[in-house]
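Notes to self, Gfo/Idh/MocA family oxidoreductase:
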Amino acid sequence: MQTNEDGTTTIGVGLISVGWMGQLHSRAYANLRYVYPDLKITPRLAHAADPAPARAEEAVEVLGYERASADYREVLNDPEVDVVSICAPNFLHAEIGIAAAKAGKHFWIEKPVGRGEHETRAVADAAAEAGVVTAIGFNYRHAPAVEHLRKLIAEGELGRITNVRGQMFADYSSDPRGALSWRFVRGLAGNGVLGDLMGHLVDLVQYTLGPIAEVSALTSTVYTERPELPMGTGTHFAVIEDDADVEMKPVENEDYAAMLVRLSGDAVAADAVGTLEASRVAVGPRASYGIEIYGTEGSAYWDFERMNELHLSGGLGTENQGYTRVMAHPGMGDFGRFQPGAGTSMGYDDLKVIEARKFLQAVLGREHLNSNIQDAVSAAQVVTAAERSAEARSWERSAPVAGTTAAVRGEHGPTLAG
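result:
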């Protein structure tokens, strides 16, 4: 890192894996100085790694990295790289995350950080030992409407929270001809929709309401086999035509998961209960990711498919009883950084710019508003408890995790951790 004469700080960025998410991280870094000029942070795209020659070339020619390599270790060994984005497939996350920590690189890593709680904790231990800053790709918590909802709950505007209903419903695997990518192979992905989508929902609940303490879960695999897709080709949206000469292989993890949950007594929504569902094979919803929150003084719901809207209801007998659509506006979260007024919408990519901002601010020792490795541990712990529950048909507990950004109750009332 280098502080320039004009007071700006240049941060050397490394990227591991130049797929869709790696491209998204790169655009987020590049847009940071336009969206947040007052931060005086200039990311410098220094070094990218991808074993596919075409993607390595794209990193330089299209994304603007100064150089590219086939081996991620070259990025970690580069003295001009200060922070690293880890956007590789799930089965490489723990290996690369631990290596990044040992190399002394602050890292921004996509979820799930590991194939279950054990691998995620190993990355957390390595990060703690190295003293590096971490950020996790929990995109949806950064939506201005969600940030506003979190604030309303903490301030008691909805009263005592009684229950929550959440869903992460996607259709990217709803076609039975959908290719069997690494996401369907337990040895590569770990669990299925629990890690891929339910982890996002668990984070959304814990960020807005507080830690989940108990779960009871069930899972199912709707399509038990799919046409095989060679590693490194296509995406998890790929569909194999009926006349294609391909081999069918078994799906090794779950397509659908549901949980009953009870929140911790330390949560802002202490002892509230709820139901959470996730599916990658839903027909109809494209990316219906959201939560409904019910309180004694009002209720609210938010859905990513309409991410620039928050629906609010006042309490019983009030003139505001019944849902009102509130459009995201410059008074909500970081909305004003992207758009001048309500009705002109933000997009998915903008959430990653916010995520990059929070990460680099923490790296520079400023505000620590970033999702961190302990948030990933907490989400993985809940998901692993859900796996145990589904297998044993039992209630399972999830112990508190220190150092998260979950919404918790302080000594003198609700507080927002982080």
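- The chain has eleven helices and 20 strands.
- The chain has two domains: 2-139, 141-342+372-416.
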